[in-house]
Amino acid sequence: xxxxxxxxxxxxxxxxxxxxxxxxxxxxxxxxxxxxxxxxxxxxxxxxxxxxxxxxxxxxxxxxxxxxxxxxxxxxxxxxxxxxxxxxxxxxxxxxxxxxxxxxxxxxxxxxxxxxxxx
Length: 119
Known about the structure:
The chain has four helices and no strands. By secondary structure, the chain is mainly α.
């Protein structure tokens, strides 16, 4: 009986968290979230492809190439999420006007390009 109550309480807490407004450290931009989720779904498909390759006894070099591609996809997704989050947080804290917002957006794109070249 107590276990059922704990489960129901946990479900209620999770439901409340889902309906609560986004707090700090949450990617709130729906377009950015959609982009990140789409990238993750593509990487998930690549991982499933690697699993099939291993099951089918494919050449290890080909499998290694696919691992490399998935790692790069995940790295770029992480970078994209981080830059989107940084831009979101800077906009929330600085409240820029339209001109400043455009400058901020351009600066963040440049930052993303520079960071992508590091990896």
